[in-house]
Each structure stands twice: as structure tokens, then as C-alpha cells.
């Protein structure tokens, strides 16, 4: 995706013109868009722009699916920040697919349910580069400086339990600001998810 020259991919684009070649053209367009996203991600100072472009592409894919099946129930598995409802911890003005689906559901008289699943410790499968297998690493420790610092009260509440702990955050929504006591990360967490599931120790998943 990134090793081949962009002009070669663009030249191939121009050759795909017949109706039967449209599926191939759609895949090539996605490849070029993904190339642009990863190139920005690897360029210093372009991380924010890469995230915005990636979120937009996710929304376009989901919109295409919902256009074909508007009444279909959907289960979407995505990273913690992507599932976030509202502005998320990635940066100012960052609204991911989770927020888009929440707004879409409301606009169509439907509902969305946002569940955050986190492990207190253990192993995780971490992105190791394009075309490479995921690397098994220790789960990143969350502290007060982390973008996900808002989960710390949930970790503290679940600490004494050996089993999984499921928190229903919905009753807290109306009092999110006062409960957070000035901590914007905690307030965002209450507003961003409906349920928070804390697993005492996680195991790395296998690549699909």
C-alpha cells in the first residue's frame, strides 16, 4: 500500500472505466485513501489530520451499508476511542464513528448503545506496522496523564473483584459534571459510554 508509487495507482485508476470494473475501482480508491491516511500518520505533525481523515472514511463505509439496509441492527466492534459518543480524547474537535452512529440513530428515531471494554492489566495485541502481524505487549497502564484517565474511578471500583465488573453509566449522565468534580476526563467518560466493562486481566487477541 505504501511501497508502490502513488502515480502508479493513479494511472491504474484511469484504466478502470467499464461497469464490470467498478468494484475493482472502488477497492483501489479505498487503497489510495488508506495510503493517504497512513502516510499522514507516519509524518510528524500530521497525526491529527490522519485521524480526521480516517474517521471520515469509517463514516462513509457505514453510511453505504446503512443505505442498503437502513432498518438492520448493527454490532460494531472498534477501538475504545472510536466508540466514544461526543468529542473524544484524541483531540479537539475529534468526533469518531461512535458519535456518528449515535447521531444517526437519533435522527432516525432509533437508539445506540456504547460499551467500553478495558482490562486493568495483562497482554494486548498492538499494531506493529503495515503488513506485519500484531505484536503482543503489556497492556498500557492508565494514569492521570493518559487520554483515557477518565476510567480510573472504574478501575478503582473494580479493583477488589476477581470477576469482570460491569458499570451501568446511564443513570449518572444527568449528574456527570458534578460527579466528575471538575475532572473533564471523568465527565467525558460518563457522557461517552453507556456501560463500562472492566476485566481484571486481559489476554491478547489473535489477528483475523
Description:
There is one protein chain. The protein contains eight helices and four strands; from the N terminus they run αααααββαβααβ. By secondary structure, the protein is an alpha+beta fold. Strand 1 (115-126) and strand 2 (135-138) form a beta hairpin. The radius of gyration is 20 Å and the shape is globular. The model has no long low-confidence stretch (mean pLDDT 90).
In summary, what is this structure?
By secondary structure, this protein is an alpha+beta fold. The protein has 8 helices and 4 strands; from the N terminus they run H-H-H-H-H-E-E-H-E-H-H-E.
Distinctive features:
13% strand; alpha+beta; globular
Q: What are the secondary-structure elements, in order, as H or E?
A: HHHHHEEHEHHE
Radius of gyration, Cα only, in angstroms?
20 Å
Q: Any low-confidence stretches, pLDDT <50, length ≥5?
A: none
Helix content: 40-55%
Placed side by side, the strands forming the largest sheet appear as 2-1-4-3
Mean pLDDT comes to 90
Strand content: 5-15%
| Sheet with the most strands, sense and barrel status | 4 strands, mixed
Count of helices? 8
Assembly level: single chain
In terms of structural class, how would the helical and strand content be classed?
A: alpha+beta
Number of DSSP-assigned strands: 4
Amino acid at each position: 500500500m505504501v511501497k508502490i508509487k502513488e502515480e502508479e495507482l493513479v494511472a491504474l485508476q484511469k484504466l478502470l472505466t467499464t461497469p464490470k470494473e467498478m468494484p475493482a475501482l472502488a477497492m483501489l480508491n479505498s487503497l489510495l485513501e488508506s495510503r493517504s491516511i497512513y502516510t499522514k500518520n507516519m509524518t510528524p505533525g500530521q497525526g491529527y489530520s490522519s485521524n480526521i481523515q480516517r474517521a471520515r472514511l469509517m463514516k462513509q463505509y457505514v453510511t453505504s451499508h446503512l443505505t442498503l439496509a437502513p432498518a438492520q441492527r448493527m454490532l460494531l466492534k472498534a477501538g475504545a476511542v472510536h466508540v466514544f459518543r461526543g468529542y473524544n480524547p484524541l483531540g479537539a474537535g475529534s468526533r469518531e464513528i461512535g458519535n456518528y452512529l449515535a447521531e444517526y440513530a437519533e435522527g432516525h428515531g432509533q437508539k445506540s448503545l456504547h460499551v467500553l471494554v478495558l482490562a486493568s492489566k495483562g497482554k494486548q495485541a498492538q499494531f506493529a506496522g503495515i503488513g506485519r502481524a500484531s505484536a503482543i505487549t503489556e497492556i498500557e497502564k492508565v494514569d492521570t496523564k493518559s487520554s483515557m484517565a477518565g476510567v480510573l474511578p472504574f478501575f478503582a471500583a473494580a479493583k477488589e473483584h476477581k470477576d469482570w465488573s460491569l458499570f451501568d453509566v446511564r443513570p449518572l449522565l444527568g449528574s456527570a459534571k458534578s460527579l466528575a468534580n471538575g475532572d473533564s476526563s471523568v465527565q467525558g467518560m460518563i457522557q461517552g459510554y453507556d456501560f463500562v466493562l472492566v476485566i481484571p486481566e486481559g489476554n491478547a487477541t489473535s489477528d483475523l
